[in-house]
Amino acid sequence: MDLTTEAGILEYLQSKEELRSITELKKLTGGTANFVWRATVASPSPNVFDGAKTVVIKHSEEYVANYKEMKLDTIRMEYENRILHIVHNASTLPEEAIVTHKVYVPKVYFFDPVNHVTIQEDGGSAPHLKDYISSLKEAPSKELTTAIGSSLGEFIARLHLYGHKHRKELYTKDQMENPMALDLSRLVLYDNMPKAAKDRHKLPEEDVALVTKAAEWGGKRLMTEPETLAHGDFWPGNILVKTKSNEATGATDLDQVYVIDWELARYAPAAMDLGQLLAECNTLHMYRQPCPELQTSILEAYCKTYGDKLTVQDIKTAAVHLGGHLLVWAPFSGWFDKDDVEKRKEVVSLGLEYIKRAWAEDWAWFRDSTSFKVMVDHLNI
Prior knowledge:
Elements lengths: L5 H9 L7 E6 L7 E7 L12 E6 L3 E2 L2 E5 L3 H16 L12 E2 L3 E5 L4 E5 L7 H7 L6 H24 L1 H4 L8 H12 L2 H8 L4 H20 L3 E3 L8 E7 L6 E8 L6 E3 L2 H17 L4 H15 L5 H17 L12 H19 L3 H7 L3 H7 L2
């Protein structure tokens, strides 16, 4: 049976007694690596998927779903299954919980490592953070963006702290080492930074040389410093946001945040999760709706939760990662018209500035000009 098709998945489900209650599928868009459907459960009951009316079904092949030429090991689904169980099991002990009262992750109901099929809790039809901010006709309220940012900052810090504490048992080949994820992350960012600087943006030789040094440094950290447990693809497209109307005030309040797509979870430098998230928050702020509190509140909650684990190297790592993301991805991922030369120059210049200032360890600039002021002040540097 062809599990990349609806007919094939339905045939697969009917072949397993415990899955026959699923009778209807709707293909989901948004992701790129896997074939994903929202499935309807015909007769919901507490004994079947915890009574859920819908679930999400994912199937992986040895390539990217919408780009067959790009090979991608199906083991990625095994790592996602492991990390989701780790996060849920952590929540059985309040002092070790990773999820918060606002931030959740999907529960795994079924996993088939042979056919690369998983069935997970459905986060619903809520938009991801990038689409949500992009859809607004006016800037979101300070209160809403602060609530979102604070929730995300606390959550990712809890994940990083848990990874530090349980490194001995989790950083193993059969748990969360995940070399596939490390290789892919290096390829899509650090290996591309010098190419973007030289070939795409035609930067001066001295800037290309600096970007190359920073990329080599970041890539080496990624591959050789398994610092703690990290999400690995922590960007707004993997963060579903549910809001609700406040009847008393008429305002839009945060209801729930749902963090999905954990296939690149691994042991790596913690600050790279921050760098990726903050880079995308920068472009949301610049090219969609003003939301400066989003970045600041992420870092305030992160520093408060992560506490004395934070180091100067974390600031440098996050800033280089952020700058690299702006160089490599921002100009070519739909933030503005590809022919808009001025906006392209703007975002490239900002990315380069982050890298230059981080490399020079110019903490005064970060304090005076960016949301990294929170981290600089936290470390009193």
